[in-house]
Automatic annotation (TrEMBL):
<dbReference type="Pfam" id="PF00563">
    <property type="entry name" value="EAL"/>
</dbReference>
<protein>
    <submittedName>
        <fullName>EAL domain-containing protein</fullName>
    </submittedName>
</protein>
<dbReference type="InterPro" id="IPR035919">
    <property type="entry name" value="EAL_sf"/>
</dbReference>
<dbReference type="InterPro" id="IPR001633">
    <property type="entry name" value="EAL_dom"/>
</dbReference>
<feature type="domain" description="EAL">
    <location>
        <begin position="149"/>
        <end position="248"/>
    </location>
</feature>
Length: 280
């Protein structure tokens, strides 16, 4: 049975069209986290990323434990199933016109059918939706070469790319220059450590400027404090994501009140704290 057929058999839709998936004894649901772009003195929702919410007999279980409990072909299937689930549920994000950042996991990155499967599922999801979002496939380069192979396959099928590093590691500059993705994704914990050092922060600003010269936008992930948010703005980042700004919400949950965030609100929160970029 093909990968696409396996996914088709696992996914079902409720009466308003929200997709869930059955994986063994678990029901998988989509939750979406907003990603913001800077517009003057506001942050405006520009895209979303989906996260799996496994559910066992009415109780949510840990997503990391779910994926880590899968191995080889089983994990690849679970990761691809998650991507398809999010593609079908994108239309149920209340804010219109958002791009869709989809994470391609480490196991599915080496599966030969993944790129074609994502293409098929994206076309199927578009056929069931009034809108067709810009899809950006997010890859992690952990140095084993897997990202390079899947990046080429996805690009050949017309997908834009976001490329980042493993958790808390520096951006994979060589891979970014090799593939010239739409987005370079910086891990927030690495960014926080570098931005806190004045000399390293200057180098980081030059790196962001170099990426912009290559028409590569920069996303700072895992933003959890106002100080990190303003440090990300200072170095010239384009996109901002993290629990400070929004938390993943199940598909269909209203999020219109999070579409626009005022920078002044975050300045007020950190007014009594020494500015992050000058703290030593």
């Amino acid at each position: 049975m093909s990968l696409s057929k396996q996914i088709e058999d696992a996914i079902s839709f409720d009466e308003i069209g929200i997709a869930t998936a059955r994986h063994g004894s678990l029901v998988l649901r989509s939750a979406f986290q907003l990603i913001y772009a800077l517009e003057g003195e506001e942050l405006r929702a520009a895209s979303v990323q989906g996260y799996v919410r496994p559910n066992f007999r009415g109780s949510e279980t840990d997503a990391s434990a779910f994926f880590n409990g899968q191995h080889g072909a089983d994990r690849s299937f679970a990761e691809n199933l998650a991507v398809s689930l999010h593609l079908f549920n994108h239309q149920h994000v209340e804010i219109e016109g958002l791009d869709h950042l989809i994470a391609v996991g480490s196991a599915s990155a080496v599966h030969p059918a993944t790129a074609e499967c994502i293409k098929e599922q994206a076309l199927e999801a578009a056929a069931h939706s009034m809108t067709e979002p810009r899809i950006i496939c997010s890859l992690v380069d952990d140095g084993d070469g897997a990202a390079a192979g899947i990046a080429e396959a996805l690009a050949l099928r017309g997908f834009e790319l976001a490329i980042g590093s493993a958790d808390a590691c520096q951006p994979p500059v060589h891979t970014l220059k090799q593939f010239n993705p739409a987005i370079a994704r910086f891990d927030g914990r690495w960014f926080q450590r570098i931005a806190a050092d004045e000399g390293a922060s200057r180098l980081l600003t030059h790196l962001v400027a170099d990426l912009h010269d290559r028409r590569i936008a920069v996303l700072i992930d895992r933003i959890e404090t106002p100080e990190v948010l303003f440090a990300a703005i200072d170095v010239g980042a384009d996109y901002f994501k993290g629990y400070l700004l929004s938390r993943p919400q199940l598909a269909g949950v209203p999020v219109a009140d999070q579409e626009t965030l005022l920078l002044e609100d975050f300045r007020t929160r950190s007014a009594a704290i020494l500015p992050f970029m000058t703290a030593r």
